[in-house]
Amino acid sequence: MKPAELFVLAVLRSGPLHGYGLVQEVAARSRGRIQIRPGNLYRVLDRMLERGLIELYERASTEDERRTYYRITQFGRRTAQEEARLLAGVIDELLAT
C-alpha cells in the first residue's frame, strides 16, 4: 500500500470527508511529508474505490451538494490495521538491530 493511501484511510477513520478536506488533513497529519496534489488525489481515490477500501458517502445536508464525500469501508479498516501492524513490525526490527 502506498503511503498516501494509508494516510487517506487513517483520515477517513475519523469520519467521511470530501476531496479537498482529505488533501488538507493528510498534509496536516503527515506534518507536510505527504502532499497529495488535487489532480493525483482522484487517481488515488479511484484506485481505493476499485479495491473496496473506501466508498462514496451520501450526506444528509445539501449545503455541500457539489462535493463528493468518501468514507472508509470495513475492508479498508482491516487493511489499514494490517498495514499498521506490518509497519510496526518493520520499525521494531530496525530499532532492534
In CATH, the architecture is Orthogonal Bundle
Kindly state the percentage of residues in helix: 55-70%
Question: How are helices and strands ordered from N to C?
Answer: HEHHEEH
How much is the radius of gyration in Å? 14 Å
CATH topology: Arc Repressor Mutant, subunit A
Oligomer: single chain
Strand order of the largest sheet: 1-3-2
Give the overall pLDDT as a whole number: 89
Number of helices: 4
* Number of distinct beta strands: 3
Give the low-pLDDT segments: none
Morphology call: globular
Separation, N- and C-terminal Cα atoms? 25 Å
* Strand proportion: 5-15%
Structure class: mainly alpha
Number of domains: 1
Give the CATH level 1 class. Answer: Mainly Alpha
Short summary of the structure?
The protein is mainly alpha-helical and about 100 residues long.
Can you describe this structure?
The mean pLDDT is 89. This protein has a single domain, classed as Arc Repressor Mutant, subunit A. Helix content is 59%, strand content 10%. The chain has a three-stranded antiparallel sheet. The longest helix has 23 residues, at 74-96. By secondary structure, it is mainly alpha-helical. Helix 1 packs across helix 2 (19-29).
Key descriptive features of the protein:
97 residues, single chain, 59% helix, three-stranded antiparallel β-sheet, Arc Repressor Mutant, subunit A, mainly alpha, globular, 4 helices
